[in-house]
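User: Run a structure prediction on this.
Assistant: Running it now.
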Amino acid sequence: MTRLKVQKIGNSLGVILPKKVLIELGVGEGDELFLTKTPDGFKISNPDEKFKKTMEIAEKVMDEYSETLKVLAK
């Protein structure tokens, strides 16, 4: 767990992510992050992680329904 402090940034409020967190997320200045509400709180992730998970699900579906997809492709 990493503790973050809400602070004034210009006319807004924000948090500064520590360098180690940025490295683990694989992001740098100007990159996008996703903030997702979960039953346990919030999750911060980068688009690449979300895309990777989406592709893993898509591959499972394609494997499971490969014959159906072949028929539909005709």
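Residues 47-64 form the longest helix (18 residues).
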